[in-house]
Amino acid sequence: MSHGHGHGHGHGGGGSAAGAHRWRLQLTFGLVATFFVVELVVGLTSQSLALISDAGHMAADVVALGAALVATRIATRTDTTGRRTFGSYRAEVFASGLAVLLMLGVSVYICIEAIGRIGGEPEVASGPMLLVGALGLVINLISIVLLRAGADESLNIKGAYLEVLADTLGSVGVIAAAILVRSTGQVWWDTVVALAIAMFVAVRAVMLGREVLAVLGQHAPAGMHPDEAEEALSQIPGVVEVHDLHVWTLTSGMNVATAHLVTADASPGEPSTDSATILSAATAVMRERFGIEHATLQVEPAGSSACAQTSW
Question: Where in the sequence is the domain holding 144, given as residue range(s)?
């Protein structure tokens, strides 16, 4: 039997998609953290639930962005134990999971606060609301531009991007609430907008959470079906069967696969295909057709009992 594997990254380097965009996270973190302090102070002094809700989401952003930065640093850290054979890249996925929990927590908090205001008539200062909402919109638009380039490549960056996107709509909501409160004199507009922000954040959190669970559950990468990979490998000359095929995502931008390729003896008068040639062809198929640069493949002759000896 022969074994082969293709590598597209090193376990101690910065090969993850999030690592390549770390500077975007750093700059966004600085902008959001600074604005969070401003928005929280103004929200408390103006008694605006919409502003406080947006500040709460900003707080979630600060923690999530900080966790994302820590995760990208951990992911590129050299393993000194020798036990983390895949490195620490999964730290980025856990950071995305933390972002999901924070977003859901903020949504629940705002809903509870909104219910508590039923029947009350708090005085809401619409002027500071409008000013801070406009400033927040500018900060969020800058952050969106910074993070958009990496959102399609990294689940970690995507989590931060979705939070900032939700914040942008939150800023728009704060501006709308300030205008409505000022023009109508009805402070309940502030509560309505706060609830709308909370619902939107919750929906985005659930969507991101599904992606996080798919990675942690070792599902096949998005857009790829294992049957397609099995069919492609079985068409390689010399391969008569493919089994024990597994494909999963280690972290964003790092898909992994393993498979056993069964070969048959060549017919009389026909040249046999050697294992090295099969491994080379199979590695190329996984890399070029399915974007999997780390594929561990085993070539075994028909009738081998190696797989039959496994207990699961």
Answer: 17-216
